[in-house]
# Entry
Amino acid sequence: MIRTLGAFLTTFLAGVMISAFAAEPTPDFSVKTKSIEASVVLDAKIKADPALAANCLAEGKKWAEKNRADADKERKQDPELFRNGPWTMERKYETRSVVDGRYVSIVRGDCEYTGGAHPNSSSDTILWDRSAGKRISIRPFFNETADNGPTLKAMRQGVIASLAAEKKKRGAEGMDASAIEAIEPKLLKIGPVSLAPSTEDGRSSGLTFHYSPYAVGSYAEGEYIAFVPWETLKPYLTPEGARIFGGARPKDDEERPQ
# Structure
């Protein structure tokens, strides 16, 4: 009986471990030294587009190599900081949406642990134009995107309203003045932006803004995603913007964990 139970537990635990490893995607690039273990992962949709995959992977490799150089230098100067092991870092590129078969929004997530009280994570976004074969901004979708102009002011107002609603939903403290002030009506200061998916195939329901832990709340609150529906921005759209925006935000996207 004991032998049978032991064999069962061994088989069960082995199965759990295999499943856990299987769930982790194989890195598309990795670095492993005494100072650092870093990996770069692209999702399947990105890898299906050779030009996009090459662009993301080149950036990811550059990021990993820079961190390796930094870790090696740090370890040489102060080996005691690495007594519990090397720095660990991971960068993931994940498809957020594909609009009109042309515009691909990607969320680039970084997670790192360098021996502090806890790991740190951050997010940024990429907008890829398949037709042009390059990264672009959201400028082509709006008539004007001047700093402190009407478009960015409307975006900022929508972002703050969305964040306030999400904080209330979580039971977190409201937005403090410094966090509000940090979200500026400027394209490079308002926050990483992506095209949100839509209930209408091939279109976007609006813009989502991705804020890492600490950006608009405490570390414990985690990441925040603010959503601004396309209707809010309708007065400012170019013909191309009017063509790609439409529909509503899917319920499963709205309710997905942040």
User: Anything to note?
Assistant: The radius of gyration is 21 Å.
